[in-house]
Design brief:
Helix content: 40-55%
Number of helices: 16
Radius of gyration: 24 Å
CATH topology of the largest domain: TIM Barrel
Strand content: 5-15%
Largest sheet: 8 strands, parallel, barrel
Shape: globular
Bound molecules: D-xylulose, cobalt (II) ion
């Protein structure tokens, strides 16, 4: 079997002083942090679409990235060779998991039946690789957005024939995800949204979406798939109004359709920022309602308003993210690098450097979050800020024992509340001491 990255060996941990770009400075898989190994806290996955299908095209020009193993065809042979490359990459990098869309790994055929046959051939190949390397599937998903048939949506398409096609594709992708032992199955509503209300029955589309997601739950139970179903929110791009706008919107949607016990949320950093939030905001809100299941790790560019899917090298951001993850005791699914090398980063070495950098960035975030939790300063300060609710009128209010009249009586008797500083700068200074 040929080697596709001959100059690169297994990536090892060398510690923070190492100057080697092909070594981890912070990610030390077996190191115990807060009672668990780094490997278990982080559960890193490499995504197939950006790393093995991304060519660096943008609206102004075609791909810049030419991989030496690609022969330019849509053949099964090429797809199998690409899978061999991927598993060599995973073994050298040491990521325990990978993720894919159905159409990333196998070519779409002339008919649905042919596409399914192609997928079966590649899934059998992947299954062998998983068995021989121990690399596992974090989650699978369906591409319901690239093919022109889905231009008006998948599950929310105004044409029932397209909704049926989307269902058939999800059904098959769930089956192969189960076959590969996937720990989750993600729904990212690529074109589940609309461009104009002039031609859209929004409520009918949302009802269809709820129905479609219920059918996925039913099928999951029917085939005995035990992985977690996840929804990945995104506010815009490609449609102007995406139905899964952000975590709060998705949680409200799930409750409306009685699906909140069946789905968790896959928070993607660059999607949270497109919605006008921070990464940690979307993590915190889904976590506090018990629905944070997984993370798509990336970052946007502060000056650009679209989904640039960069590797997150910002320790500030990973520290705050890992604080949320540690506070909930870990992630049921994991951390998938939904990130791509820049269009200008055309060497195969860049694929490694980017992932090593991303893994180190989250590992460092984990170490920082652990220190913050051990010191207890943030938790203590927040507890102190809300301590007026621990007893007296505050506790009565929280427990539903004080009505408006009781609160009015308290306000009349106590007079003007004493001013309480938010001390934001003090805590920003403190946070910087951990970064
Ligand atoms: C798109 C995106 C997707 C999903 C999987 O912005 O993040 O790649 O993660 O469909
Ligand atoms: Co994503």
């Amino acid at each position: 079997m040929s080697e596709f990255f001959p100059g690169i060996g297994k990536i090892k941990y060398e510690g923070p002083d190492s100057k080697n770009f092909f070594a981890f400075k912070y990610y030390d898989a077996d190191k115990i942090v807060g009672g668990k190994t780094m490997r278990d806290w982080l559960k890193f996955a490499v995504c197939y679409w950006h790393t093995f299908r991304g060519v660096g095209s943008d609206p102004f020009g075609p791909g810049t990235i030419k991989r030496p193993w690609e022969d330019g065809t849509q053949s099964i042979d090429n797809a199998k060779r690409r899978m061999d490359v991927a598993f060599e990459f995973f073994q050298k990098l040491g990521n325990p998991y990978w993720c894919f869309h159905d159409r990333d790994i196998a070519p779409e055929g002339a008919t649905l039946a042919e596409s399914n046959k192609n997928l079966d051939a590649i899934v059998a190949h992947a299954k062998q690789w998983q068995a021989s390397t121990g690399v596992k599937l974090l989650w699978g998903t369906t591409n319901l957005f690239s093919n022109p048939r889905f231009m008006n949506g998948g599950a929310t398409n105004p044409d029932a024939a397209v909704v049926a096609y989307a269902a058939a594709q999800v059904k098959k992708a769930m089956e192969v995800t189960k076959e590969l032992g996937g720990e989750g199955y993600v729904f990212w509503g690529g074109r589940e949204g609309y461009m104009s209300l002039l031609n859209t029955d929004m409520k009918r589309e949302l009802d269809h979406f709820g129905r479609f997601l219920q059918l996925a739950v039913d099928y999951k139970k029917e085939i005995g798939f035990t992985g977690t179903l996840l929804i990945e929110p995104k506010p815009k791009e490609p449609t102007k109004h995406q139905y899964d706008f952000d975590s709060a919107t998705v949680m409200g949607f799930l409750r409306t359709y009685g699906l909140e016990k069946e789905y968790q949320i896959n928070v993607e950093a660059n999607h949270a920022t497109l919605a006008g939030h921070t990464f940690e905001h979307d993590l915190e809100i889904s976590s506090r309602y018990g629905q944070l299941g997984s993370i798509d790790a990336n970052v946007g560019d502060a000056q650009l308003g679209w989904d640039t899917d960069q590797f997150n090298m910002d320790i500030h951001s990973t520290t705050l993210a890992m604080l949320v993850v540690m506070n909930q005791g870990g992630l049921p699914v994991g951390i998938n690098f939904d990130a791509k090398v820049r269009r200008e980063s055309t060497d195969v070495e860049d694929m490694f450097i980017a992932h090593i950098g991303g893994m180190d960035s989250f590992a460092r975030g984990l170490l920082n979050a652990d220190k913050i939790r051990q010191d207890g300063t943030k938790a203590e300060w927040i507890a102190k800020r809300y301590s007026s609710f621990d007893s007296g009128i505050g506790a009565d209010f929280e427990k539903g024992k004080a009505d408006f009249k009781a609160l009015e009586k308290f306000a009349l008797e106590s007079g003007e509340p004493k001013q309480m500083s938010g001390q934001q700068e003090k805590y920003e200074v403190l946070l910087n001491q951990y970064i």
